Amino acid sequence: MPKPIESSPRLYDFEPQQKTFLSEVLQGLQDARKELPSKYFYDDVGSQLFEQICELDEYYPTRTELAIMQERVGEIATLLGPNCLLIEYGSGSSTKTRLLLDALHDPAGYVPIDIAKEQLLRSVAALAETYPGLEVLPVCADYTSNFELPVPSKPVLRRVVYFPGSTIGNFDREPARHFLRHLARVCQGGGLLIGVDLKKDFNILHRAYNDSQGVTAQFNKHLLVRMNEELGADFELKHFGHYAFYNPTQGRVEMHLVSLRNQTVHLGEVEITFKLGESVWTESSYKYTLAEFAQLAASAGFTVEQVWTDARQLFSVQYLTVR
Ligand code: AVI
User: Ligand 1 centre and the CA of 83: distance in Å?
Assistant: First the structure.
């Protein structure tokens, strides 16, 4: 386990290496079906773009989840009980977490985990001001990798993993099961509070991923910007188009970058050719029915204790416990 960096608050830094970024994108772009891992959206700028998406009128998940949390946070805090250690995967700006922290009964600590270090440090510094008595143990890591969790100084009655935003939707089915199984081990004896986006009218989904201001398109193309800036690639942004659609057979929104002409791009020594109309798959966002998610959760060892939804059944917040 790395030593915390001397800053206030302490940071447990498992920062992903540039080498990993290069090798993963090279592998993805040389596949017969080109793809890029969506986790690479979230550097500092990408995380800020995502925050902008969350504020768009068309992007219903964030405000719907927030409204559910606002309405139910008392109930949720009672379920989680006193002295719980709250561990948040992909904490971002920790906005929804503040609601929880305000309501929790004497939490043992808060462990925010995020891949974007600058944003993590900013949000943790702000949290430290609002909650001076709370032990915050930030971890900078790719949360799909293996890393040790820090242990707070206060006794912990139960560990509760918080995984909001329907980020579970960004995992394909088998990796989702695998990751949930991992979370079940992390919160053994405790629970998982998770945001899960629900199946709905395709048009609502289409608008959410094709916003009128083009922020989602910019977010999508940010992967190209990162490869240019960090890996010395020469992608021309104007020659790639944002393309997102709901695939009803697979129950997911797919996001792609489509090559707008035949072109060759250089990434280090490697030449990558794109045909006109060829796509790079950048993200999937699976949507579930409550029954489908309950089945997935059960196959990972969880029992669904409680489900809260909004009146239109757009989104759900669920509390799962480990059997
Ligand atoms: C983070 N994740 C749940 C978002 C989603 O809706 O799948 C990422 C996103 N991609 C485009 N817009 C938002």
Answer: 32
